Amino acid sequence: MVFRKLSAWIRKPHADVVHLGNLGSDNGAKTREHALKAPEKRFLGIDTTKSEIAHTANWRQHTGDFISGLRTLKDNSAELITSELALGHYGPKFNSIITVEYNLKVLKYIYRKLKPAGRLEIIVAGIKNVSDLRQALERTKFRVLEIRPITEAEAHSSPYTERYYSKPGDYLVQRKSIVKIVAGK
């Protein structure tokens, strides 16, 4: 039994960059594009939806909730873990209402999977979601490095956030409630 567990742990893959909520509105195209631009890095996308686009040699997709996807990685193996409008918005089942406790559980897994100098970058919308994530980060060992509204350039670089910037005077833009949170170990 011990040998089987050790053998399974040794076979766990390594990823330099992990994106939570990878499929969203672009079916994984953004992560695939990053993988093509950085062939020396390994990418993992995690989403509850199955990807329909071809993987690259350095990009794989895990279908499942964030925790099940993070469990597939070795501890201390990721340089960067990102999430755009996913962590803080969805729970273990697609479109379920999340809680601080679920965020806390995911963040503990993220912390274990990041390398010692690794970073977590989250883009989140809504004051309640920002508050919940900040509370969860404070309850983990993460150091919050930055919390700020995203720039217009950052918003237009992502299919996830671009839709919030499509109309002048949009409520979310006016309230600056789309924020970027950067945390480290």
CATH class: Alpha Beta
SSE-based structural type: alpha/beta
Portion in beta strands: 25-35%
The main sheet comes to: 7 strands, mixed
Order of helical and strand elements: HEHEEHEHEHEHHHE
Report the average pLDDT across residues: 75
Number of domains: 1
Rg calc = 16 Å
Number of strands: 7
Name the poorly predicted regions: 1-11, 171-175
| CATH fold field value | Rossmann fold
Determine the fraction of residues in helical runs and give it as a percent range.
Answer: 25-40%
Question: What is the number of helical segments per DSSP (H or I, 4+ residues)?
Answer: 8
Terminus-to-terminus distance? 33 Å
What is the overall silhouette?
A: globular
Topology diagram in text:
Layout: H1 2-10, E1 17-20, H2 29-37, E2 43-47, E3 59-63, H3 66-70, E4 78-84, H4 100-113, E5 114-125, H5 127-138, E6 143-149, H6 152-156, H7 159-162, H8 171-175, E7 178-184
Parallel strand pairs: 1-2, 1-4, 2-3, 4-5
Antiparallel strand pairs: 5-7, 6-7
Helix pairs in contact: 4-5
Short description:
Helices cover 34% and strands 25% of the residues. It is α/β, with parallel strands linked by helices.
